[in-house]
Amino acid sequence: xxxxxxxxxxxxxxxxxxxxxxxxxxxxxxxxxxxxxxxxxxxxxxxxxxxxxxxxxxxxxxxxxxxxxxxxxxxxxxxxxxxxxxxxxxxxxxxxxxxxxxxxxxxxxxxxxxxxxxxxxxxxxxxxxxxxxxxxxxxxxxxxxxxxxxxxxxxxxxxxxxxxxxxxxxxxxxxxxxxxxxxxxxxxxxxxxxxxxxxxxxxxxxxxxxxxxxxxxxxxxxxxxxxxxxxxxxxxxxxxxxxxxxxxxxxxxxxxxxxxxxxxxxxxxxxxxxxxxxxxxxxxxxxxxxxxxxxxxxxxxxxxxxxxxxxxxxxxxxxxxxxxxxxxx
Length: 329
Description:
Largest sheet: 8 strands, mixed
Number of strands: 12
Distance between the termini: 36 Å
Mean pLDDT: 89
Low-confidence stretches: none
Radius of gyration: 20 Å
Number of helices: 9
């Protein structure tokens, strides 16, 4: 007997048929325009996703990457709150709802879900895609201006993924404050760029000031040890490339790495990782070099050698973004 399809598998199947009937050249042109818009400055009263062609191209191209990044952030958050699962979820600026699929994949079950976005075509397509997954069929898809006027109903979990870059500084602050005022837990994901990291750090501080505890990726709720302008904290999630990805970006690899920055925080007690791998581990002959963010608000390079026995084996298997040391060590 075959195992039931996971939300990730179901989403992949649902997205596979989206481009039927949309000429490949039109889809590629829409994606290229959307990429240019997302990298630029977008006023808060101008939704980037304008019509179904835009939204279909966006969903087919971006939903897998957004899902992978949010799913990675939620996995780290879940590790820090192992006895907790959200009874309700609001996805702010959720567009076609990638984060709702990631939440379902993380915790399973059925819960009240609301997706807020200003682009009606995105909400309509998100509802269409969600029909493929029983846990999301009753999701409420609500048009809402994302910014200073935003109202968020009380809920357990609020997700905000790839949204802050579209907002003015004042609207970003208002959104984070609205999320903090409504939720028991907030997860914010942005592009893994210096600017994306800066937006995450700004949001992180607002959450801490509102009484939240940072659960991931940081091992503490104090200030980030990175000196502004010298580096940025980000991670990577592997994404299978669709034919549309290959058409737009070229290249022959069957996958790409989605770079993202994030913060996950909660009003209730959390158990963050004792330290976290913040760069790709460097494997050398007989040793592994790990760059770790640690509880004393420092980033240090630790060398793990064969003399460390099982810890050395664990270090060779460690990945960028993993907690350290492993829970079973």
